[in-house]
Amino acid sequence: EVEIHALLPRIGANIDDYTLGLVRQFELQGVRVINNSIAIERARDKFRTLQELARGGIRVVESCCVNNMQNLKRALDALGPYPVVLKLRSSRQGRGVTLADKEETARFIVENLRQPGRGIIVQRFYPNEERKDIRVLVVGDKVAGAALMTPAPGEFRSNVHVGGKGEAIDPGPELRGLALEASKLLGLEIAGVDILIPKEGPPMVVEVNYAPGFQGLEAVTGLDIARVIIKYITTSAGRPS
Question: 63-124 falls under which CATH superfamily?
Answer without folding.
Answer: ATP-grasp fold, A domain (3.30.1490.20)
